[in-house]
Amino acid sequence: MTSSLPKAPHPAKWVPTLYFAEGLPFFAVATIASLMYKSRGVPNDVITSYTSYLGIFWIWKFLWSPFLEAFKTKKFFVLLFQAAGGLSLALLALTLPLPHYFTYTIALLAVVAFSSSTHDIAADGLYIASLSSKEQAAWAGWQGGFYNVARFFSQGGLIILAGYLEKHLGITTAWMIVFGGLGAIMLLLSFYHSWALPKIETERHSESIRDILTTLWDVIVTFFKKPNIWVLIVFIILYRAGEGQVVKVGPLFLRDAVSTGGLGLSTDQVGAVYGTVASLAFIGGSILGGYFTSWLGLKRALFFLVCAMNLPNLAYVFLSVYHPANTIAIATALSVEMFGYGFGFVGVILLMMQEIAPGKYQTSHYSLASGVMQAGFVLFGWMSGKIQMRIGYQSFFIWVLISAIPALILSRFIPIRGGTQVPAAAQAAEV
């Protein structure tokens, strides 16, 4: 007798598009919005402050992640937050011509950020619950691959398109088309996924809200009882001190006029050098950083990973001193910086996976550690614009190198107890 249960969709039908949908709103908030504000003349300190505030939603997502298990299904939340993010991006496009557009767009970007961070939880949960361990391993590369396709599409293709449209249709219309297009893509993906995503019939939600709160409290308490936790927290926060500032100010430096210390690139030129070639270098660095750490072991590799994360920021010092007009020279310098960023970023991911996460609440403690890391990233990103406007680009990039010194020193004293295995997720980490 043939079973009447519908066959689950093949992972090829939904894994690539799911993680493409996970990346799009993140890069819209992290990069595209900053360049849009720069084109519209918003000061650097305002851009970096407000876009950094939006990172708070990725810090605290562990607080509401348990509640998703109590209501509806993972597929329901994936579709809901893809649609909510898409609608918010489309509405953002419509507010750009308004007099108080900045207030409206920041509010809508906050909705996008909340939707994106919550979508991450539901999407990862759906992936884990729908696939066997063997299938999870087989499709892990597709996760990171299509997340980075979203990076290329957003930081490369869309920014190049925005630059082209700025020259032909004007700044406001150009960015209305870009954000409207992003919103339409997210809405289309939500419609597609309503058919393509697997529905997990065995999902049950028996825990009460009180049980969830009790478990959440135990997760937090046991997290702070882990060995050497405060040293590890300080190190995780400091690890991204330099990079958190460069990520926010770097694209603005590329766009700013030469007369104010920038490189004077057009929007499409920024997309070409920063979102394509440099992004490829980031991926290559991430892969090699994983193999390097697997070969040497995290304990011995950590110092070199911190160096790789920060020393390539010398590329920005070079650019701010010599102001090369040659696009190839600029792309090469940025590729060196992004390669080091990808190579070194593996270190903090593995530290959280191997030294903090293991235990009763492995997934929750990794999520909490990621929130701590994101808090440091937000803090340094928030202050970056203020520092840059006070001391100028050249001195700012020197300061970025100096701000990495505490993490370099601390890396020699971090207690490493875990193994050397490099999980697949470390090579596809989002930033």
Question: What features would you describe in this structure?
Answer:
This protein has 431 residues and is mainly α. 77% of the residues lie in helices and 0% in strands. It contains 18 helices and no strands. It has helices at residues 15-39, 44-53, 56-59, 61-68, 74-95, 101-130, 133-169, 171-196, 209-223, 229-239, 241-255, 267-296, 298-310, 314-322, 327-356, 362-391, 393-402, 405-410. Helix 1 runs antiparallel to helix 6 and helix 12 (267-296) runs antiparallel to helix 13 (298-310). The longest helix is centred in the middle third of the chain and has 37 residues, at 133-169. It is globular, with a radius of gyration of 21 Å.
Please outline the helices and strands.
Layout: H1 15-39, H2 44-53, H3 56-59, H4 61-68, H5 74-95, H6 101-130, H7 133-169, H8 171-196, H9 209-223, H10 229-239, H11 241-255, H12 267-296, H13 298-310, H14 314-322, H15 327-356, H16 362-391, H17 393-402, H18 405-410
Helix pairs in contact: 1-2, 1-6, 1-7, 1-8, 1-11, 2-16, 4-6, 5-6, 5-8, 7-8, 7-12, 10-15, 10-16, 11-16, 11-17, 12-13, 12-15, 13-15, 14-15, 14-17, 15-16, 16-17
**Mean residue pLDDT:** 86
Query: Quick one: overall form?
Result: globular
Protein structure class: mainly alpha
Strand content: under 5%
Rg calculated over all Cα atoms = 21 Å
Largest sheet: none
Helical stretch tally: 18
Quick one: how many beta strands? 0
Order of helices and strands: HHHHHHHHHHHHHHHHHH
Uncertain parts: 1-5, 419-431
C-alpha termini separation: 50 Å
